[in-house]
Design brief:
The protein has one domain. Helix content is about 0%, strand content about 50%. It has strands spanning about 1-5, 10-15, 20-30, 35-40, 45-50, 55-60, 90-100, 105-120. The strands form 3 sheets. A 4-stranded antiparallel beta sheet has the order 3-4-5-6, with no helix packed on it. A two-stranded antiparallel sheet has the order 1-2. A two-stranded antiparallel ribbon has the order 7-8. A hairpin with a 3-residue loop joins strand 4 and strand 5. The relative contact order is 0.20.
Length: about 120
């Protein structure tokens, strides 16, 4: 995933990690953390810190990801899948829900950012 300066056309940074075609990218903000959420045919959804370019969270899915959606969630006590405990500007927890429609043989996967907290530079989780 490449990030570009829209005024100058200069490439700002690359978010590296997906191993197949990236099908959708969303920009999101949560509790002061600016995030990029990307889905790929490599069967993963990734959450990135827009400032550092670090991959904060990766969620494996049972099939290629064709679309991603982002919405705010204030759920308390919800089970999270592999919560990220990273050292960096943001700390992220993601909940993965999965549905399978046997008639159409389609998987629906939703990765919800439950918690994203800003962390001062150099602080430890």
């Amino acid at each position: 995933v490449a990030m570009w300066d829209v005024w100058t056309g200069a490439r700002l940074q690359s978010l590296r990690g997906h191993t197949a075609e990236v099908t959708q990218v969303l920009l999101a903000e949560r509790y002061g953390c600016q995030l990029v959420v990307s889905g790929s045919r490599d069967q993963s959804v990734r959450v990135w810190d827009i400032d550092s370019g670090a991959c904060l969270h990766r969620v494996e899915t049972p099939s290629p990801v064709l679309a991603v959606a982002y919405y705010l969630s204030e759920l308390e006590g919800t089970r999270t899948v592999d919560p990220a405990s990273v050292l960096g500007p943001c700390q992220v927890s993601v909940k993965l829900t999965h549905e399978y429609d046997s008639i159409s043989s389609r998987h629906t996967v939703c990765a919800t950012v439950l918690r994203a907290q800003g962390m001062p530079s150099g602080s430890r989780a």
